[in-house]
Amino acid sequence: MDAFNPTSQLTEAERIDHLRLIRSDNVGPRTFRSLVLHFGSARAALERLPELARRGGGSARIPSEDDARAELAACQRLGISLKAPSEAGYPPRLATIDDAPPLLGVRGATEALTRPMIAIVGSRNASAAGLKFASRLAHDLAEAGFIIVSGLARGIDQSAHRASLAQGTVAVLAGGHDKIYPPEHQDLLASILGPGAAITEMPLGHEPRARDFPRRNRLISGSALGVVIVEAAHRSGSLITARMAAEQGREVFAVPGSPLDPRAAGTNDLIKQGATLVTDAADIIHAVAPIMERPLALGLREEDDELPASDPQAGERERVTGLLGPTPVLIDDLIRMAGMSPAIVRMVLLELELAGRLERHGGGMVSLI
């Protein structure tokens, strides 16, 4: 089983600092991590944030301590804990991904988040056969001791949640804990929160938007040993989850379907591309058993020590910015073309990002906004 032992508990002051930093404009999980590693703490990063954004050609909006305390108090009233990756109650496997949320809003039975999880996702407009299979698969995996994690969506997601309610299931939300989508699943979520849990990285009051669902999907796959796609048309959100799972080193499973049903086109393609074909729970259990025996570790990422000791010079900043445009470019190519150290280039990119001028894309690509 997973040997993951969180040891670091945030103090109240550190939690306030972490919350202020991750809620600051243009600070996402990767940027948060880079800032804290480079400057030594969230508080030190907060002190440098305005200067970094100014050097990138913009400004930084940083929530006040009062704002952060008010958010923490509102969470406590609703039974929500904001957990850091190093703390007990944070899903162990999620803590190991490159863009793990620095603070995760957790509600319900945190014990469920520490057990091995399997994600089950699929079409919102699912077939009767797909719903039945998802339900059976979730039930059998739950009986075998796994926690089912999914996105609380219509179709396959809700079928998987309902079939594993008694043993505990985890819902990953695209919005805040008080902005459930779809609204008709409020009752389902209430049932989940008994033996199971709900998690989100979004603040209270955040209404989920289209771009929030792919962000949510990386938490579904990141929390799990593997992801099962039951039904998925071409270009569906479930295929995004499968891609993220592969990038995170998770197992990808797919349920085959009729070539005449467009809802099976995506899953059949996944099988052609090497996903493990699934016809029953045993296929999944046998595949993940060796993974569960390996211990988890919070390892350093390749770029963690790649910010410079000194600030970039004006000419270096102009060189990197001049090479950027609206077309995404690989950071590695940018480093090569700039003829500078990776550390300097990454610091310039960080400054531009904090100024709201840089967009990061998948596959290590960036572009100017």
Give the topology, please.
Blueprint: H1 12-22, H2 29-39, H3 42-55, H4 65-77, E1 80-83, E2 104-108, E3 117-121, H5 128-143, E4 147-150, H6 156-163, E5 169-172, H7 186-192, E6 197-200, H8 212-223, E7 226-229, H9 237-247, E8 251-254, H10 265-272, E9 276-277, H11 281-292, H12 314-323, E10 329-330, H13 331-338, H14 342-354, E11 358-361, E12 365-368
Parallel strand pairs: 3-4, 3-7, 4-5, 5-6, 7-8, 8-9
Antiparallel strand pairs: 1-2, 2-6, 10-12, 11-12
Describe this structure in words.
The structure is a single chain. By secondary structure, the chain is an alpha/beta fold. Among the domains are: 108-292, Rossmann fold; 314-368, Winged helix-like DNA-binding domain superfamily/Winged helix DNA-binding domain (Arc Repressor Mutant, subunit A). It is 42% helix and 12% strand. It is built from 14 helices and twelve strands. The chain has helices at 12-22, 29-39, 42-55, 65-77, 128-143, 156-163, 186-192, 212-223, 237-247, 265-272, 281-292, 314-323, 331-338, 342-354, and strands at 80-83, 104-108, 117-121, 147-150, 169-172, 197-200, 226-229, 251-254, 276-277, 329-330, 358-361, 365-368. The strands form two sheets. The protein has a nine-stranded mixed beta sheet with strand order 1-2-6-5-4-3-7-8-9, with helices on both faces. A three-stranded antiparallel beta sheet has the order 10-12-11. Strand 11 (358-361) and strand 12 (365-368) form a beta hairpin.
